[in-house]
Design a protein that fits this description.
By secondary structure, the protein is an alpha+beta fold. Helices cover 31% and strands 29% of the residues. The strands form two sheets. Strands 7, 8, 9, 10, 11, 12, 13, 14 and 15 form a nine-stranded mixed β-sheet that branches. The structure holds pyridoxal-5'-phosphate (PLP). Pyridoxal-5'-phosphate binds at residues 37, 156, 181, 184-186, 205, 207-210, 244-246.
Length: 286
Amino acid sequence: MERKNIAFYNHEFTTLDNVRISPLDRGYIFGDGVYEVTKVHDGRCFALSYHLDRLYRSMRLMQIPATIAPDELTEIHGVLVEESGIRNGSVYLQVTRGTAPRTHTFPAGIQPNILMFVQEDNPHKQELAASGVKVITLDDIRWEHVDIKSLNLIPNVLGAQQAKKKGADDALFFRGDELMEGTSSNVFMVRDGIIWTRPADERILKGITRQLILTKVAPSCGVTTIERTIDREYLAKAEEVFITGTTTGIAPVVQIDKTIVGDGKPGPVVRKLQERYAGLMAEGLP
Ligand SMILES: Cc1ncc(COP(=O)(O)O)c(C=O)c1O
């Protein structure tokens, strides 16, 4: 068995190339499923219990029955990470509603399909965390329940691709004048030394990295945080801007469309947060 390629599908460990998914899996047909991505740091899962809490919430809101216990998922994460030999990367986990002849309503008596595998970190992301990222801005054309981490990521995929085409690293979504989040990240700004971010309601994903910054990292740096909506005018007054996510960590934003943020270099607040966040990862978090 090629270790890096290890996967878990329904009740067994296998390799990714051996997983056989039916074309009638509702994840494939409808995007009818949810997912999580958990960071692997130094051979251990980071903040896994936070990710599992969010997974069960997503499943509940999608009315996908929980057929596996969190303890079992924790154990499978551990086996995958250990067997893969991957020290720094992430575990991908998705749960679809199951496999059944195609019809929109929920078929009776189907079992969710659970797929998990491990991926290595992209070294490019670490460089971006050091040098800062450029972002473009886009209209948020997503539905109104993006707090559910569902498989339906087309606006995110198209947004990320559009950013890439324009030589940027991510896109920030706006609903009208209001800043939401990135295509796979939450967004924060610093003004008067205070950290501002949008409240987490149905219109953004309640990111785990975001949550850890608000509850642990910023307080331990002695920096005040305020959850408040941010419009374009307010964003333009930012001293610093940064995006956060499980695989991104904390990345300073140095340019938004054609506008340079601050002096165009990662600022002191984001540097301090990055340092504390690295410390938290080294300590570990269940
Ligand atoms: C749309 C969106 N927002 C925010 C995030 C950041 O969430 P987390 O910190 O839990 O990775 C993600 C992560 O993939 C995302 O897809």
